[in-house]
Amino acid sequence: MANILIIDDDPALCETMERVVARAGHTGHSAGTLKQGVSRVANEVFDVVFLDVRLPDGNGLDALPDIIQSGDSPEVIILTGKGDPEGAEMAIEGGVVDYLVKPSSIQNTLGVLERALKYRQEKQEASRPALLNLGGVVGVSPRMRACFELLGRASSSNSNVLITGETGTGKELIARTIHANHRRSNEPFVVVDCAALTETLVESSLFGHKKGSFTGADRDYLGLVRMADKGTLFLDEVGEMSLTIQKVFLRVLQERRFRPVGDLREVTSDFRLIAATNRDLGVMVEDGRFRRDLYFRLKTIALELPPLRERGGDIKILSMYRLNALCEEYGLPAKGFDPAFFDMLMAYNWSGNVRELFSVLETAFIAAGDAKALHPMHLPRDVRIAVTKASLGTRVDASSSGKDDEPEASVVAPTSPNSSTEPASSEEEPESTATPTSARCICAVDAVNRHVALKPFKEEMERDYLRALLSSTNGDVDCMVDIADVSKSHLYALLKKNDLSMKGPW
């Protein structure tokens, strides 16, 4: 008997589904909102979840990762009232077992349910503890846990694997990890840099040559494909292969046979193939830049590595792993961390992914020297500037769009108990009478509408900017100079003029 949860805001449908589930010998439960459903999945055990897409408090597809990655990992069947091809694609990519459009017949619903339960049973019977040696692969985020599952499948099979992802996401590391967990782990792992292959030397590089077969061939050479015999052949940046080289390699991949340059007989190589690329091979196929037949042979198992910006939960653990390794390499005791250090790492947009993160961490480690802890000041200046600019930009956007929680600031004339609270006219008091009542940024249009004089408005804006600059850089003079694009002497003069201290408070 299975435990089934229906997450749908239609009470009548939930009641009907519970009766259908009970008729099949299972126990049905229902939740009317997404929040209730996710909470029940987190605290109870379910085998299958019927999930509506459009719920009062959100889109069911957004909750897919939380449901699928919950403790008992239930199977999910999407249940929606409107056919949506793009939604179906998102659901399937998210890991659902099926996609039903309401209204669906009882027979059809039961059929889908029983298939999902059968799949779940077979999966549980076939599953075994994954004793993977992950080596330097670090991650706890849902996206990486999904990758580890695919990594385990790839390690236990002999099928071709295509690893995709942006530059710096660790594609070669994943390829080596698959090899290390495969039965071929004691055999060679041979890397082919496809970007460096030239059409004039490709056959010699890949398939080898006999001595004297061409000028400069002063000895026999096995070739990379033959070196990978019994082991793994890793095609790095396979998207850089020319169409001519793709054609040459396709035959080898199909038959595992080839003829070295200058040899009269063919030889064989029993290699396991793993390929990697940062390009979209599907688009290249449609554009005629990559062979369709080769593409489908490469992607028997497709493993996409997420960019670091989608692995927020992994940045801290990756950083600690790398810095501990650096301490060990340099023979230094483990270092502590200022919380603001990690805050800045989390706020940075890692376009170079893990490779860039590790490079930045090594720079910070060297800058820290013998210091017992790492601080934001130890990070490269370009990282601090980028984070600070993004922070300042966010504040300005929030102010101009009226998203602040505090009341909108105004600029009024100083008042006495008997004075009027009406804004002062710039004609009556051109410069001196209008002063701000708040340190918040003020929209220029609002200032004009309130007849705020230019000079006090400019002074207050300058003071607000300097306060934000001090706060975001934590008083780092070099960083402030770079962002404000002024000289140090000018910066000091501005701070003095506005009675602001480098030590705060700001």
Give a short overview.
The chain has 506 residues and is of the alpha/beta class. The chain folds into four domains: 3-126, Rossmann fold (3-Layer(aba) Sandwich); 142-306, 3-Layer(aba) Sandwich (Rossmann fold); 311-379, Helicase, Ruva Protein, domain 3, CATH 1.10.8; 407-497, no CATH class. 44% of the residues lie in helices and 13% in strands.
Explain the layout of strands and helices.
Blueprint: E1 3-7, H1 11-23, E2 27-31, H2 34-43, E3 48-52, E4 54-55, E5 58-59, H3 64-68, E6 75-80, H4 85-94, E7 98-101, H5 106-126, H6 142-155, E8 161-164, H7 171-180, E9 189-193, H8 202-207, H9 224-227, E10 232-236, H10 243-255, E11 257-258, E12 267-268, E13 272-277, H11 281-286, H12 292-298, E14 301-304, H13 315-330, E15 336-337, H14 339-347, H15 353-368, E16 373-374, H16 381-400, E17 411-412, E18 435-436, H17 444-449, H18 454-473, H19 477-484, H20 488-497
Helix pairs in contact: 6-7, 13-15, 16-18, 16-19
Report low-confidence residues grouped into runs of 5 or more: 402-442
Give the name of the CATH superfamily of the largest domain: P-loop containing nucleotide triphosphate hydrolases
What is the arithmetic mean of pLDDT?
A: 83
**Helix/sheet category:** alpha/beta
- Enumerate how many helices there are, as a single number: 20
Radius of gyration: 31 Å
Instruction: Report, as a whole number of angstroms, the end-to-end distance.
Output: 63 Å
Strand order of the largest sheet: 2-1-3-6-7
